[in-house]
Amino acid sequence: MADKHFSLDMTIAQAMQAHPRAAEVFAAFHLGGCAHCHINQVETLDNLCMSYGLDPNELLEALEGLMETAETS
Q1: Residue 29: which of 9, 54, 66 has the closest Cα?
Q2: Do 19 and 5 contact (CB within 8 A), yes or no?
Q3: Which of 10, 29, 38, 52 is the most exposed place for a label (fewest CB within 10 A)?
Q4: Displacement of CA 68 from its chain's centroid (Å)
């Protein structure tokens, strides 16, 4: 089993640092302001999911998909 690159306890900013296209995933979940919002430094992915009623597993799966694409390119 491959190591996970994203977790619910990481901040939005950390997720965006982990992969340059993470902001695109947030935008796909209708969260387009994450890159510029000041709270991205402290709000975790778990907080984000709870605040917006997102399925945390879907968000993590989409973010991990970025890494899988990068590894197979």
Answers
A1: 54
A2: yes
A3: 38
A4: 14
Return the amino acid letter for 24.
E
pLDDT tens digits, 21-61: 998 999 999 886 666 677 778 899 999 999 999 999 999 99
At 60, give phi and psi (nearest 5°). -60, -40
What CA–CA distance (Å, rounded) separates 66 from 18? Answer: 10
Domain ranges of the chain: 12-72
In the block, tokens 């901040």 appear at 11
Task: For residue 13, give the 3-state DSSP assignment.
Answer: helix
The β-bridge partners of 11 are 44
